Amino acid sequence: MLPALPAHAQERARYVFDQSIGRIGFSARHLGIFTSVGQFDRFQATLLINPANPANAAVDCVVETSEVSIPFPGATDLLRSEPYFDVARHPTARFQGQANGLTEAGNFPIAGDLAVRGITRPFRMTARLVERQGGIARFQAEGEMRRGEFGMVADRNFISDIIRLNVDVRIVV
Amino acid sequence: MSEASPRWSLAQRRLHAWGGILVVCTLGLSLAMVALPMSQLLAKFLAYQLHKSFGLLVLIVTLARLVLRWRRASPELTGISPRMRQAARLGQAVLYALLLIVPCLGYLTAQAAAGPVPTTLFLFIPVPHLLDPSPALYAWIRPIHQFAAWSLIVLAGAHVALAVRHQLQGVPVLGRIWG
Hints:
The complex is a heterodimer of chains A (173) and B (179). By secondary structure, chain A is mostly beta strands. Chain A is built from 1 helix and 11 strands, in the order ββββββαβββββ.
């Protein structure tokens, strides 16, 4: 876990984290029968946040698309291929977002831009402070993207267009 | 038990035929599901699901055959030597064992696979998985499933070939089980 950089009370602190203390996962539905789950094994994220007032958070996250992993034989290579992340031409995907200061039932929206396969679209995640024990705060965020909007149109008869993204991170505050 | 008849009962003859058809279909689907590329994802998934469905039907049909066999006396096998008769009985016992073991191993293989793909009988009836995915278990149970399945195919082929041979030699064995 990474300590906070120096910050004044009630001001946002800057946290830099990666896959060692966080997880970025995704899930898709298949024929309405089952859900597959995968993750990105390498990413770098910067979080500007005041844990006492997380509704003003900002995030910038870059994932290495070649480090996508999914526990189905052959599926990881499929996701790296041209019809999906096309990692040869687009080695990274990025989300930059900013909370708007509003909270609802403990959740705070983070709106921004998601860039996948060189295509940038508005994207919104809903984040929340899950727990704060001792000096550790755990945040989670979720959002839904339509893969077709990013040119990922293969296997629509088997893989849902909607892909759920989720982030889980613990930071020392 | 009823008195022995020269033929297997109609139900036994039908189940024998369906069991054979299902084994051939399951084998064909297993070859297709492995050969299909990931670019044909839906077809590959359906081949896996149908392979699992047919495999479970093989198990059900085999259990039904064993129940009928237990309840009804087997027809007398005449016209072949006692040694050959013993060999035939042993071969049938091994075939029955493989017809039970191979689907069970396949069911365990599906459960142990790393990607938790559910098993659904013909995409409609969910079949519960009793084990959590286990790459270690999968690594050793999958080759055993494959070896047992190919053993079943080879033995079933020999079973058919010997039956035809007996028939051609004037021992009317096919009439006991077909028709």
